[in-house]
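Q: Given only this backbone (106 positions), what sequence would you predict?
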């Protein structure tokens, strides 16, 4: 799944497919990283009917919400844990995502 520390497009596609919440009105906003401009990623987003938009290059402030989440993820979870495998990281990120953005049962 990882190549030189970067997640391949197939990994991002799997992340899109993993959800336990309502996807209505979801718009996926990403930067222009290779995994997000890959044909496989774009194809999967279209198959799942997820609108996808890109931020303008060199403008990380346009994606402030996710930048803030990534900072919290690194500071509050990743740096505090000894992750020995991809599965460890996956479980921790899923836990952190659910804790950071709890899904309302109403």
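A: Predicted residues:
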């Amino acid at each position: 799944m990882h190549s030189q520390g970067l997640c391949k497009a197939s990994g991002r596609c799997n992340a899109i497919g993993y959800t336990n919440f309502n996807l209505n009105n979801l718009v996926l906003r990403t930067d222009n990283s290779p995994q997000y401009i890959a044909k496989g990623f774009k194809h999967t987003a279209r198959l799942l009917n997820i609108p996808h938009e890109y931020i303008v290059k060199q403008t990380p402030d346009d994606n402030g919400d996710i930048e803030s989440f990534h900072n919290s993820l690194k500071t509050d979870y990743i740096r505090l844990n000894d992750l020995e495998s991809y599965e460890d990281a996956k479980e921790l990120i899923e836990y952190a995502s659910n804790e950071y953005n709890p899904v309302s049962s109403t």
